[in-house]
Amino acid sequence: MNESSPHDERVAADDDRHETPTERLDRNWGEILQELRVTQTGIQILTGFLLTVPFQQRFTDLTDTQRGLYLVLVVLATLTTGILVAPVSLHRWLFRRRAKAALVTAADRMMRVGLVFLALVVSGVVLLVFDVVATRAVALTVSGVLLTLLVGAWFILPALLVPAAARGVSGRSRA
After folding, report:
1. Which DSSP state fits 6?
2. Does the predicted TM-score (pTM) go above 0.90?
3. Which helix (DSSP H) or strand (DSSP E) does residue 19 occupy?
């Protein structure tokens, strides 16, 4: 006899999780929140550091180019903070409106954009610090290498792992 059970609407994912679409969205939202905690803390500390720089005695020693770079970094850091906090605001607006799928999708996109900006801010801060402490050539080299490593670790490596995960090579599926 084919009677329905509560488990009939559960979906078996590639990773053998038996969860409903709602449970999957809840899990994905929880994972996004964990990632947000890490990135928000990092960018907020970096932004705080940048905001204190003009109050340091050596700030007046910066060249016009260094001051311009500094101002660009302040804008990038605050923009990055805003992008990485945006999913929280979006959650407030969509809370209890049965829009979890839209929330998870939008938050995922915002975080990807936020990571691009974060990579630029981190490498830019290194560029500024090395330009002040060492030489412009050293600063450009170190900052360029750092940006390359961040792009590799944060974007290229995950892109390379997606097809392997889809084939089941890694033993886990896409969330």
Report:
1. G
2. no
3. strand 18-19
